[in-house]
Amino acid sequence: MLPLALLLGGLAHADAPSVPDTLQQRIAACTTCHGVHGEGAQNGDLFPRLAGKPVAYLTLQLQNFQRGLRKYAPMEYTVRQLSPEYMHEIAEYFAAQQVPYQSSGVPNLAPSVLQRGQQVVTSGDPSRQVPPCQACHGKQLTGTQPSVPGLVGLPYDYISAQLGSWRTGTRGSKAPDCMSEIANRLAPTDITAVAAWLASQSVPADVHPQAANAITPPLRCGVLDSQGGGA
Amino acid sequence: MKSVRLLWVPMVLLVVVLAGWWWHAHTTEQSTLIATQDVSAMLKDPAVIAKGRYLATVSDCMSCHTQQGGEPYAGGRVIPTPFGNIPAPNITSDPEHGVGRWSFDDFWRALHSGIGRSGERLYPAFPYTSFTKTTPEDAIAIFAYLQSLPPAAQASEPPGLNFPYNVRSTLNAWRALYFKPGVYKPDPAQSAEWNRGAYLVQGLGHCDECHAQRDALGGLQGNAPLSGGQIPVQDWYAPDLSTQANGGLQGWTQQDIVDLLKTGQSSKGTAFGPMANVVGSSTQYLHDDDLRAIAIYLQSLPARAKLVPVAASFDSKALADHGHDIYVKRCADCHGENGAGLANVYPPLDGNSSVLEPSGINAARAVLLGGFAPLTQGNPRPYSMPPYAQQLSDADVAAVVTYIRQAWSNHAPAVEERDVAAYRHTPID
Which of A52, A128, B119, B346 could covalently link to B334 via disulfide, CB atoms 3.0 to 4.6 Å apart? Predict the structure, then answer.
C-alpha cells in the first residue's frame, strides 16, 4: 500500500509549483525591479542598486516609504504593511549582496560642468553653505556606516532625480533633514553637475562603506542621531 | 445652456430642505438608558478600557483616524469620496483637537445618530450607518478607550467637499433616504453565535460599507447586504460574501473564512488591496470565537441569483490565447499551470472570488501592483508577488487577466485594454 500511496501523492503534486522557503523567494516583489541580488535595473535608470548598501540606510528607506517621508506610490504600496523586523531582514539581505557594478551612461556635458560637479563633491561651495558630499558619504564616496549610502556606481538619472526629490519634498528623512537642506542650497545647474560627475567616476576596488567614526558631519542630521555641527 | 443645467441645484436643495424638515419631525433621539453615574464609573474601569481597545480594533477605527506615518488615532487621513475629500478627525483624548472634552452622550450621539458635538450632521464617510447597531455598553467601552489614549495636539482638517455636498443640511435628506438608527436586535430564532456574528458584521465591523454597491448618492439602500460592490474612488471591488450558490465566496468553509481573517490567507484566496489593511490592523486580532461567529453568520447569507454572463463586445478568444502565453511565462511558476496555487504560499486563481468578481478590477490591479500577502501574527514573513506595472503593457495585462478569468473552471467576462489603462493610474490608497 505504501508505494501506491506515495505514487498517488506524487501524482497529486506533479502540477504544484515547487517554491523554495527562502527570503529571496519571499521578496519577489522587491527583486523583480531591483534584481535578485539588488543589482538594480539593467538599463540603470530609476530602480537603484541595493546591493552592499549599509543595513541601517536600507531599513530607514523602507521605513520612510512606509511613513510617507519618501514618496513613490509603488514602493509605499509594497512596504505599507511590513513589520520593522521583516524590513530589517530584507535590508540585511540586500546589504549582504556582493555583485559587480554596472556602468551606466552619462549625458554629454561640457568639461566645465563636470569640473563644477567635482568641486561640489570634493570641496563643497562655501558661498552657498554647501558642504562637500565627501564630508558624510566618505572619502571614497562609498558611504559610511551605519546609515549613509554610497554615491559611486549610481546612475546619473537616479542621482539627479533624488536631488530633485529632496528639493521638492517627495524624498525626506527624519528631522533635521540635512539632505533636504543641502539639496535646496544647491543651484539647479549644480544638480546636473554633481550627478554627472558622480556617475562618471569609476568604482573603487573596495566598495564597503567606511566605519561610522570616519566622518564628522558638517551639519545636524536626524539620520545621524543629530550628531554634527550647525552649518 | 449652463443656466439651464444649474437649475437642478435649487430643486435639489428644496427637496433636501423639505425632507430634512420631515425627518426632524418624525425621529426621536434614542437614549442609552444608562445612568450618568454608572457611565462615569465605567469610563475609569481598566477592564472596560481593555474591552474598548478590543472593540476599537474590531471597528478598525485606527485605519481611518491615523494618517500615514502619523500618531495613532490623531486623524488626518483623507477619505476620498465621489463628493470630495473628508479628512478623518483626531479622536485622541486631546482636549482641544480630540475628544478629551466630550461627554459620553456626545460620543453616543456621533456613533449612534451620526450627529457631531455641535449638533452638525456628520458625513457618512464615518460609518454611523453601521455603528448605530452598537450597544450602549460597547459604545461606553470604546469611548473609555479613546479617552485613555495619550493626547495628540494635531488639529483636525475641515472636509473639502464640493457644492452642494458641503451644505450640511443636505445630509438631512440623505439620512431620510439611507439611515435607520437603531441598536442591533438579536434574532431569537438564531443561535447566540450567529447573533454575535451578525452584530459584529453589521455593526462595528461595518463590512457592508465596502461589500455592497453604493448608488449615485453614496447610499446602500435597496441592495442585498454584503452582495459585493465597487469601492468608490479607490476602485477596488469588495466581493460578495455569500458562501452559497452563486455567492462570491461559494464553497468557502467556516475554516476558510476564519483563516483569511486571522492570517490573511486561506485555501481559497489571499487578502490584498484594502482588505489586506483590514486584516493587518483589525481582523487578525479578533478572538477565535468572534471569528467563528462571523464565519457562521456569513455562511447563513442567502444564495445569489445566477448572473447571466454578458457577451463580450469583441472576440476575446485571441486576447485569452495571448494571455495564456503570458501566464505560462510569468504566473505559472507560482500559481501553477492549473491555477491551483500553493497552499499557504500562493493563492489559487481557479475559483478565486477576487479573480471572478464582476468588474475585473481586482485581478487587473493585483497584476499591476503585486505586493506582499498581509503581514500577520500567523504569517510574519509573507511571500509576495512582483508588480507587473513596469513590465507589462495595458494590452498584456488585459490579456493575462482575461485568460485567468476564463481558464479552468472560471467563466468571468473579459477585461479590455482601456479598463487596465484606467486602473493603472488609480491612486493606491
Answer: B346
Asked if residue B79 and residue B166 are part of one domain, the reply reads yes
Same domain, B42 and B141: yes
Q: Given an 8 Å threshold on Cβ–Cβ distance, is B277 in contact with A80?
A: yes
Chain B interface, mutation test: which of A64, A80, A171, A173, most B Cβ atoms within 10 Å? Answer: A80
Cα distance from A224 to chain B (closest Cα, Å)?
20
Q: Which residues of A touch B345 (CB under 8 A)?
A: 19
Q: Within this chain, do residues B272 and B332 fall inside the same structural domain, yes or no?
A: no
- Could you say which of 3.10.25.10, 1.20.120.530, 1.10.760.10, 1.10.220.30 is the CATH number of the domain covering A23-224? 1.10.760.10
Say which CATH number the domain at B411 has. 1.10.760.10
B69, closest residue in chain A (CA to CA): A67
Q: Per the domain annotation, does B311 fall within a domain?
A: no
Sign of CA dihedral B103, B104, B107, B108: negative
The reply to whether B239 and B161 lie within a common domain is no
Interface-testing mutation among B381, B385, B388, B408, with chain A (most A C-beta atoms within 10 A): B381
The residue segments making up the domain with residue B127 are 2-178
Mark whether B286 and B338 lie in a shared domain: no
Residues B287 and B325 in one domain: no
Sort out which chain A residues have CB atoms less than 8 A from B334's CB and list them: 17, 19, 28
H or E stretch covering A157 = helix A156-168
Asked if residue B196 and residue B174 are part of one domain, the reply reads no
* Structure ipTM: 0.89
List the single best residue of B267, B328, B384, B429 to mutate versus A (max A Cβ within 10 A).
Answer: B384
Whether A19 and B346 lie within 8 Å, measured CB to CB? yes
Q: pLDDT in tens for each of the 429 residues of chain B?
A: 445 555 656 666 666 666 655 555 455 455 666 888 889 999 999 999 999 999 999 999 999 999 999 999 999 999 989 899 999 999 999 999 999 999 999 999 999 999 999 999 999 999 999 999 999 999 999 999 999 999 999 999 888 888 888 888 889 999 999 999 999 999 999 999 999 999 999 999 999 999 999 988 888 876 789 999 999 888 899 999 999 999 999 999 999 999 999 999 999 999 999 999 999 999 999 999 999 999 999 999 999 998 776 666 777 889 999 999 999 999 999 999 999 999 999 999 999 999 999 999 999 999 999 999 999 999 999 999 999 998 999 999 999 999 999 999 999 999 999 999 988 876 666
By C-alpha distance, the chain A residue nearest B331 is A17
- Domain stop point among B154, B178, B202: B178
Specify if B187 maps to a domain. no
| CATH code, domain with B268 | 1.10.760
